TrEMBL record:
<dbReference type="InterPro" id="IPR037219">
    <property type="entry name" value="Peptidase_M41-like"/>
</dbReference>
<dbReference type="InterPro" id="IPR027417">
    <property type="entry name" value="P-loop_NTPase"/>
</dbReference>
<dbReference type="InterPro" id="IPR000642">
    <property type="entry name" value="Peptidase_M41"/>
</dbReference>
<dbReference type="Pfam" id="PF10431">
    <property type="entry name" value="ClpB_D2-small"/>
</dbReference>
<keyword id="KW-0547">Nucleotide-binding</keyword>
<dbReference type="GO" id="GO:0004176">
    <property type="term" value="F:ATP-dependent peptidase activity"/>
</dbReference>
<protein>
    <submittedName>
        <fullName>Peptidase family M41</fullName>
    </submittedName>
</protein>
<dbReference type="InterPro" id="IPR019489">
    <property type="entry name" value="Clp_ATPase_C"/>
</dbReference>
<dbReference type="GO" id="GO:0005524">
    <property type="term" value="F:ATP binding"/>
</dbReference>
<keyword id="KW-0067">ATP-binding</keyword>
<feature type="domain" description="Peptidase M41">
    <location>
        <begin position="470"/>
        <end position="644"/>
    </location>
</feature>
<dbReference type="GO" id="GO:0006508">
    <property type="term" value="P:proteolysis"/>
</dbReference>
<dbReference type="GO" id="GO:0004222">
    <property type="term" value="F:metalloendopeptidase activity"/>
</dbReference>
<feature type="domain" description="Clp ATPase C-terminal">
    <location>
        <begin position="346"/>
        <end position="408"/>
    </location>
</feature>
<dbReference type="Pfam" id="PF01434">
    <property type="entry name" value="Peptidase_M41"/>
</dbReference>
Length: 679
């Protein structure tokens, strides 16, 4: 490189860096809660963005996340910010039919516009392109074969069979018939029997008989026909006139032979070069986002966020193995970016971002400033957030609470004369009812309230969350308190929150708890089982055996599964082996009623001992159980700090210092080091 070229190239790269840095900054402003994902995407595209000429294969970036988390929209916005809007091609693989030519037709755009040049492809809803079904049987997906070629070598073939090819075949037959009937051609023009030509080739546009012999001659292949032919085989010529020049020196038979050769050439697949491309594979993998099927709006967004942060690339590849062949997964490479679920802070950030958009639009259109009280933000969160469903339900709730009231507000200003310069959205607690929240909108002029309207906002989730203070809530309060107390005393883990009323349609209440360590030792199996049986046992202790309800089926299923898993699979029974029979596809969630005196006996003994432990412990903590359950029979939740206070005041022979705070160093490492020191 000459010095001047080096300097030019340096400035070129500097400009690219500025573009990418600005794009990253704007993406982080426009998309809340995924800063780390945006940084990973920016780092992954850097080699392609700066040095596409060095590529001999596409750069493939895989994006996995829950629905509504910002996969598709982030990539679309990124392409706009780095100047690739016209060179971005998105394919929804969920909409691909079984017809091979459906996606081929879409790929023709790439061939015609970007062949061999840098561009971006988005393969959306990739999980729906599965080639293996739920029974691990292969599926013939002819419509997406080109995609696997694209992901492998960056090249694929496009067959250009369409209406024009059929038209060209018919044209050749007509021209050949015209020659057979006596039409003669010289240097591309008809020299004899022109009437026959028009009668056969184009009878509807036959011109009047020529009176002047010096009139313009008729082309054997018209200009309109030439345009269509060139469109089919333009890859063989630089310009259209090149094709005309060839035809203008031919007689009739030569023309027919040449058109046949062009027709055959158009049938050959055209290789599309995508080696300089950037490919985003985007999809949802419910197998790794195990929380994705939980639609409970009361589940902690922070807990889902924590779980999603623990998902690894190996888990992603294992999940893909349920949908694709191993060699297909290999084509996706190792660049897998995993979106975390939104935490509570992110959801509130998204709410504020959406309100800012409304605020700006109203200001730009009507010259009105808008203010939103934090209680309004909380209302939107409480009514709009389903932690596993991302932003879409939230956007709908923002629209319902704010946008739908703009018409009423503008009527007050322009028709009723309350000419305010700003609006303030607040919650009027006194005017709120049981099933509605009173949304108050103050009209301000020079910071003074000149008018207000109060509008009732029906509560959907809020209605479901209301304390019932009836027998059902009392039962749930006792049941969930049993789980929570045993978790604290036996597992040394205070739950994050206890619910005695929830908006979830599948449960009346629940305890959100998780031991801080990620393994299960033999000595804690019975403790864990006792926690699972704690709800049933608590009901029996406080209400009597005859008043125990049937709401423990899920707990019993989980407890039985853990017990059988421990002895059937994990060697925790009397005999150290893996057990099963020809009728088992997975670990049973039931005790088999047969003659087995080994694993069934072991599993039953674990459950019996766990129930006894639960009963002994809860009887000992009876005062704590009654106090907690009494509180939860009136209030719908008890948080971690509140429970800590209850334990401190009412627990028997239990010290809060026993609660596990450092789960990384409980026993094993320290014990190993001590053994090593003794050698």
């Amino acid at each position: 490189m000459e010095q001047i070229n080096k300097e030019q190239y340096k400035q070129h790269l500097k400009g690219k860096r500025e573009v990418l840095d600005k794009a990253v900054t704007l993406l982080k402003q426009e998309f809340i809660g995924i800063d780390s994902v945006i940084d990973q995407i920016a780092n992954a595209i850097t080699p392609w963005f700066f040095f596409p000429e060095m590529q001999d294969r596409p750069v493939i970036i895989n994006l996995w996340g829950l629905t509504g988390i910002g996969k598709t929209s982030v990539i679309k916005r990124l392409t706009e910010l780095i100047g690739y809007t016209e060179h971005y091609f998105r394919f929804d693989l969920g909409e691909c039919s079984s017809q091979y030519f459906d996606i081929q037709d879409s790929f023709k755009d790439i061939y015609e516009n970007c062949d061999g040049e840098p561009f971006i492809i988005g393969l959306d809803e990739f999980q729906l392109a599965r080639t293996i079904n739920e029974d691990q049987e292969e599926i013939d997906r002819a419509s997406i074969r080109a995609i696997w070629d694209l992901l492998d070598s960056g090249k694929f073939d496009v067959v250009n069979f369409d209406y024009n090819m059929s038209w060209l075949s018919k044209l050749i037959k007509k021209l050949d018939l015209a020659l057979f009937k006596g039409v003669e051609v010289e240097n591309g023009f008809i020299s004899q029997n022109e009437d026959i030509y028009w009668d056969i080739v184009n009878p509807n546009n036959k011109p009047e008989k020529k009176k002047n012999k010096n009139a313009e001659k008729t082309l054997f292949v018209s200009e309109g026909e030439l345009d269509s032919i060139f469109g089919m085989v333009d890859h063989l010529f630089l310009i259209k006139s090149e094709l005309r020049e060839k035809l203008d020196v031919m007689d009739g038979d030569q023309t027919i032979d040449y058109l046949i050769s062009l027709y055959k050439a158009s049938l050959k697949p055209k290789t599309v070069d995508c080696t300089k491309s950037l490919i985003f594979v985007m999809g949802n993998l419910d197998e790794v986002y195990t929380m994705s099927r939980n639609f409970n709006p009361d589940m902690s967004a922070n807990e889902f966020h924590r779980q999603s942060k623990e998902i690894t690339v190996t888990e992603v590849k294992q999940a893909l193995l349920n949908r694709f062949r191993s060699e297909q997964i290999a084509r996706l490479g190792n660049n897998h970016i995993i979106y975390p679920a939104f935490d509570e802070k992110s959801f509130f950030g998204i709410i504020r971002l959406e309100l800012d958009k409304i605020r700006k639009k109203v200001s730009d259109t009507y010259g009105l400033e808008m203010l939103f009280d934090t209680k309004v933000e909380r209302l939107i969160y409480d009514e709009g957030v389903f932690p596993t469903q991302g932003t879409r339900p939230l956007f709908t709730t923002v629209h319902q609470i704010v946008n739908t009231r703009l018409g009423k507000i503008l009527n007050e200003i322009y028709l009723n004369g309350f000419e305010a310069d700003s609006l303030r959205f607040t919650i009027n607690e006194e005017a709120s009812a049981k099933d509605n929240t009173a949304l108050q909108i103050d009209f301000l002029k020079n910071d003074a309230v000149i008018h207000h309207i109060t509008d009732q906002q029906p509560l959907v989730l809020g209605k479901l969350r209301q304390e019932k203070q009836n027998d059902e809530q009392a039962i749930v309060a006792v049941h969930e308190s049993g789980h929570a107390i045993l978790s604290s005393v036996l597992m040394k883990t205070i739950p994050d929150v206890v619910f005695s009323v929830t908006a979830d349609s599948n449960s009346s209440g629940f305890v959100l708890m998780r031991p801080e360590w990620n393994y299960i030792s033999k000595k804690e199996i019975i403790n864990r089982l006792a926690v699972l049986l704690g709800g049933l046992v608590a009901e029996r202790i406080l209400f009597g055996d005859e008043n125990v309800t049937i709401g423990s089926s899920s707990d019993l299923g989980k407890a039985t599964h853990l017990a059988t898993y421990a002895v059937y699979i994990c060697g925790m029974g009397e005999v150290k082996a893996t057990f099963g029979n020809e009728n088992m596809n997975s670990t049973p969630s039931v005790i088999f009623d047969n003659s087995s005196e080994t694993v069934n006996k072991d599993a039953k003994e674990l459950l019996i001992k766990a129930e006894q432990l639960a009963e002994t412990t809860l009887n000992k903590q009876r005062k704590l159980l009654i106090k907690m359950a009494d509180y939860l029979s009136d209030k719908r939740t008890l948080n971690k700090e509140q429970m800590r206070d209850y334990i401190k005041e009412y627990a028997t022979d239990f010290d809060l210092n026993e609660i596990v705070e450092d789960a990384e160093h409980l026993f094993y490492r320290k014990h190993l080091k001590e053994l090593a020191e003794k050698l």
